[in-house]
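Quick one before lunch.
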Amino acid sequence: MEKILVLDFGGQYNQLIARRVRDHHVYAEILPYTVSLEDIKANEYKGIIFTGGPNSVYDMNSPHYAKEILDLGVPVLGICYGCQLVAWMGGGEVKTAPVSEYGKIEFNADKRSKLFKGIDEKSIVWMSHTDYISCVPNGFEIIGTTNDCPCAAMENTNKNIYAVQFHPEVTHSRFGSQMLYNFLYEVCGCTGDWVMDNFIENTVSLLREQIGDKKVILGLSGGVDSSVAAGLLSKAVGKQLTCVFVDQGLMRKDEGDMVEKTFTSLFDMNFVRVNCGDLFLSGLKGVTDPEEKRKIIGEEFFNVFWNEIRKQEELGFFAQGTIYPDCVESGKGDADVIKTHHNRVKTPDDVEFLGIIEPLCDLFKDEVRQVGEKLGIPKELVWRQPFPGPGLGVRIIGEITAEKIKILQEADWVLRDEMEKNGYEKNLAQFFCVLPCVKTVGVMGDHRTYDHLIAIRAVTTDDFMTADWARIPFDILAKVSNRITNEVEKVNRVVYDITSKPPGTVEWL
Ligand code: XMP
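Model of the xanthosine-5'-monophosphate complex:
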């Protein structure tokens, strides 16, 4: 398989570079700048991309790399800091720029360069730099400028080395995607063999080889990642796979049944559903503190899940739905910053597996979804919005009771139903109802009521680190409010949360 190395010098867009390369059907992997030259050589990359980073190349404590990397005969593309690094390594000069550039800047491209095939001579690029290349190294030619940057792009065609001061990976760079395409196909000579059909075929045969005739156990949450992992494993080893699905009674309406039906009807596997809503409710009785609730739900889940696993006659391997961003932490450039993410489950000491299997550990989320669709997993699961591990437990303020769960499930179901019917859900990253456990006065016929308030939360976001409240059209909100107050017993008022993150968070607890 063709591979591109994204050599990480600590920039904030490093995962995005890898994703954009993969969008062009070439596999890209991110490695920190501490990886050895020997390892790079051994991997036979088709090309190497030096990422951006927050440092100055002339600061000796900044991340650098052995100059020999430019003599491997492997094409290189330097981006931002990576561009300056190429200049510095090649004997050019990098200085603090008289004028730093930030944001959308007009760029003039030399159309004779392979890198700029098919793009306009003048276009907007995304810049973010305070240093600039004041003198290009021997063998390099300037192939792009801006008003304030005399060398915004350069090339050495003999060695197939290219460098751009701007960020082609962000969508603000009008032709950035085309430039990356040109680097991959015109410079590196890639053919584009990273397609999900190949991934499924290769992964299934690798899984068969690895698992042999042993058993595999997977904890299924009903989320996208574990669902797709289950689909792949089932395709590989069928009934050797056992999926354990713990239904703690805090999922959305009918969700547990939907997960069970999907996996038992679609895939060949052993499916174990553990219904333990009552156990969770008794553990949560009288508890109002949000962090305490999270802790209890987490601990109960751990106990129930592992007790179920201990009942299995043969354990074999333990599979997890860990995906690529869980394994690489961008922005540091250090080899030892692998994240401990909640997707990586801790196993208790007394449970011993033959090994851990992570069939999705090379995929980004959008690729996981593509694989899910190709495996025939229904859209509701493949495009399922994020759902917190503690479930509705973090959407009920105060003590959790069976009655409150039911009210919230019904209201939330109406919201989802309306969003689906009018197709507005595709505009939202996440949307749900919250039960603040506040009762307000209402009127129904000739009677006063004193019933629950439901809050609607809907956000748009790319990464959930920041989010904006969604501008859902009033007509849709009116319909939802009308239906919730009519159809859900014990609710007489609906409000819409218009708080962005920060200062609010997406969830209320
Ligand atoms: P916040 O509320 O932190 O949410 O802005 C950001 C994203 O994380 C999800 N979330 C959680 N997920 N366990 C989870 O697995 C949790 O305790 C939890 N709290 C928040 C939230 O739904 C949103 O997608």
